[in-house]
Recover the amino acids of this structure.
């Protein structure tokens, strides 16, 4: 187990190094002044330019520059935005939790709807309800996320006027930014109308969550259904039936775990897709997350911001993927180091 | 009354355009305390019979039978719960491939303990119960001849050698102290020492616990050592059944004879390097089943009448299903419906097994 852990940590460190190296190289490819691209500050005088060059070690060799970049990066000094001149670290720390929040809602829906529905429809496969689920999952999976979001806005916000169209919460509520997660912030903010604020935030969250989670839920349904159908035909399930165990006992003890083990890594990989989708949907719903923020940065050709934002998203997806892979690998008992060697 | 009574068990498989009879009129009984062997080559439907008995066939396969009873209770008319109760306590199965019949993600100890019925655990508190379960499981493993119980109980199925997992399967089957043990090809691919151990174990259980065993196999040597009676299947049809002794001595059906002839050990007169006998051709696939007696195209003395399914006849408890049984040549000739086809010289067939004839002369 420790060996396995070290192996995954090693993988992570090397990939992070490669990512950081890539992000270090980016300003050299961007158009415009290298110094502005790196620092985000357009020098107004020669002294300022020289001071900046000295700070980023631009006159030294490339290795020294990289070293300076690394130490700045890990110190949390990610430069400033070339447009707003705000500290990028603070900006990202402000925007990122919102994305994470949206992603978690969608993941929650996908897990607690997709997996149970997948199990049910796989266990009762080939009956009309199952066919309905399969049809729904194919249709749902085929929707482009941004289109679905626009349809939801047209339908529920503009036509029916049931739900709010943009943002995380109405501006009336003075929610302070503490953790970045809106519900926690509402509770921590100590408002006099906490209940209304929570309800309002919830109504805001419904449409973005739905438009992201439908695709992922359908995917979860399809994987789970397929997997449980395969497992139910396995010899050990027939053997368990022949031993006269109850259906429930067989499901809990034998099919559930065995059906989840092969699909967990696949499901975990979907989280990166979820992040991407969340970023797209944020733009449409003006959700104050990193996706929205990055798109703004791209519009304004804010190169330091693009660099930092991309690096953060990439690091997040990477950490998540490797951690989940490690967990799924660690709980799978059939992949033990001590396999019996055939003599 | 027979413990397990199967009469005319037919298994329909609805394919595109046609319905295939995967099993056709399989008939046999299993008496209390009997070891019955179900013989047939691969594809003859042995495993299907087992699955029909335990109810593990896919839902769209239709099972029909005049009788499929356990202690007089009709298994086909039972609801799921009743059948589950019988499977829980009365009938146990040891499956063909032991490693795939064990859950790969659960430790073996847990799986064995799971198959112990709750009634056997008499202690009150859960820690005592767990301990008792473990003791029972250990006892079971000792019973089937596994000494390193701790080691195997803490391992996962993929860590087991094949013979140990076969023994563990038997231990799990015995956990509920069943009346019938169905052993589906339990000795396949085992080396002879392990095989002997397993056979000895089965025989011992049969003697001491009066356990009825349905021993499904194609290993004729193993069968003749332990079984009391034999039922031969060919391609989903019951071909012949009877006491092992009488079947070995006087096989009435050409297929049984061919099956016995194919085992050199039964032929003591066989000289070194003399050609071995075997039926030509292979067992037909389910899509291309011949009409009537399914041995027809491969049978050395098939005639026109063989396109009809022969009815099961019985001579002193020895049942056969053939229009032209061996050793009883006259029965065929007397039949007035026999046609000109028979006048053409039927293919010469060694009617009497010389080895067995010699044996009987010694008697």
């Amino acid at each position: 187990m420790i060996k396995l852990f070290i192996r995954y940590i090693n993988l992570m460190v090397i990939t992070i190094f490669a990512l950081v190296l890539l992000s270090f190289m980016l300003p050299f490819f961007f158009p415009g002044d290298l110094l502005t691209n790196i620092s985000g500050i357009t020098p107004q005088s020669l002294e300022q330019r020289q001071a900046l060059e000295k700070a980023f070690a631009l006159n030294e060799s490339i290795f020294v520059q990289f070293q300076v970049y690394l130490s700045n990066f890990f110190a949390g000094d990610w430069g400033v935005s070339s447009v707003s001149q705000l500290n990028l670290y603070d900006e990202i720390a402000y925007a990122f939790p919102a994305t994470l929040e949206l992603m978690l809602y969608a993941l929650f829906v996908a897990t607690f709807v997709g997996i149970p529905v997948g199990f049910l429809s796989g266990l009762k496969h080939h009956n009309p309800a199952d066919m309905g689920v399969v049809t729904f999952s194919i249709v749902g999976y085929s929707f482009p996320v941004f289109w679905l979001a626009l349809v939801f806005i047209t339908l529920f916000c503009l036509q029916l006027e049931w739900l709010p169209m943009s943002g995380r919460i109405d501006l009336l509520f003075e929610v302070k930014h503490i953790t970045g997660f809106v519900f926690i912030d509402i509770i921590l903010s100590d408002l006099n109308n906490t209940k209304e604020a929570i309800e309002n935030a919830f109504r805001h969250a419904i449409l973005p969550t739905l438009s992201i989670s439908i695709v992922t839920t359908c995917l979860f349904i399809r994987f789970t259904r397929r997997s449980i159908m395969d497992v139910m035909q396995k010899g050990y399930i027939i053997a368990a039936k022949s031993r006269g165990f109850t259906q429930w006992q067989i499901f809990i003890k034998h099919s559930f775990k065995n059906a989840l083990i092969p699909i967990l890594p696949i499901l975990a990989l979907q989280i990166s897709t979820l992040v991407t989708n969340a970023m797209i949907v944020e733009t449409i719903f003006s959700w104050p997350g990193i996706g929205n923020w990055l798109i703004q940065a791209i519009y304004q050709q804010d190169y330091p911001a693009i660099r930092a934002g991309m690096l953060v998203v990439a690091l997040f997806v990477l950490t998540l993927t490797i951690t989940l892979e490690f967990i799924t690998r660690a709980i799978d008992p059939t992949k033990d180091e001590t396999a019996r060697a055939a003599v | 009354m027979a413990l397990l009574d199967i009469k005319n068990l037919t298994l329909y498989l609805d394919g595109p355009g046609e319905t295939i009879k995967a099993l056709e009129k399989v008939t046999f009984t299993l008496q209390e305390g009997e070891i019955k062997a179900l013989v047939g080559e691969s594809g003859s439907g042995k495993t299907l019979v087992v699955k029909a008995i335990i109810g593990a066939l896919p839902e769209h396969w239709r099972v029909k039978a005049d009788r499929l009873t356990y202690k007089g209770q009709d298994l086909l008319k039972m609801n799921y719960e009743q059948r589950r109760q019988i499977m829980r306590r009365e009938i146990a199965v040891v499956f063909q491939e032991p490693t795939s019949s064990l859950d790969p993600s659960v430790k073996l100890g847990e799986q064995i303990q799971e198959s112990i019925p709750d009634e056997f655990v008499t202690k009150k508190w859960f820690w005592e119960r767990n301990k008792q379960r473990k003791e029972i499981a250990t006892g079971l493993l000792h019973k089937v001849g596994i000494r390193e119980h701790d080691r195997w109980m803490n391992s996962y199925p993929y860590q087991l050698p094949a013979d140990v997992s076969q023994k563990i399967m038997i231990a799990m089957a015995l956990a509920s102290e069943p009346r019938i043990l169905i052993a589906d090809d339990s000795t396949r691919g085992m080396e002879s020492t392990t095989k002997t151990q397993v056979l000895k174990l089965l025989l011992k259980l049969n003697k001491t616990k009066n356990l009825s065993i349905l021993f499904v196999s194609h290993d004729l040597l193993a069968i003749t050592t332990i079984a009391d009676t034999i039922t031969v299947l060919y391609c989903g049809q019951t071909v012949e059944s009877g006491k092992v002794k009488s079947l070995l001595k006087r096989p009435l059906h050409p297929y049984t004879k061919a099956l016995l002839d194919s085992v050199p050990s039964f032929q003591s007169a066989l000289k070194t390097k003399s050609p071995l006998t075997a039926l030509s051709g292979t067992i037909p696939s389910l899509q291309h089943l011949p009409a009537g007696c399914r041995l027809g195209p491969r049978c050395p003395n098939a005639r026109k009448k063989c396109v009809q399914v022969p009815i099961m006849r019985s001579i002193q408890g020895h049942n056969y299903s053939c229009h032209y049984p061996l050793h009883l040549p006259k029965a065929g000739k007397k039949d007035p419906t026999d046609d000109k086809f028979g006048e053409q010289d039927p293919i010469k067939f060694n009617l009497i097994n010389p080895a067995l004839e010699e044996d009987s002369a010694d008697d």
Summary: The two ends of chain B are 34 Å apart (CA to CA). Residues 126-143 of chain B form the longest helix (18 residues). Confidence is low (pLDDT under 50) at residues 331-363 of chain B. The interface with chain A takes residues 51, 54-56, 84-89, 91-93, 95, 97, 100-107, 114-115, 155-156, 158-161, 172, 176 of chain B (CB under 8 Å).
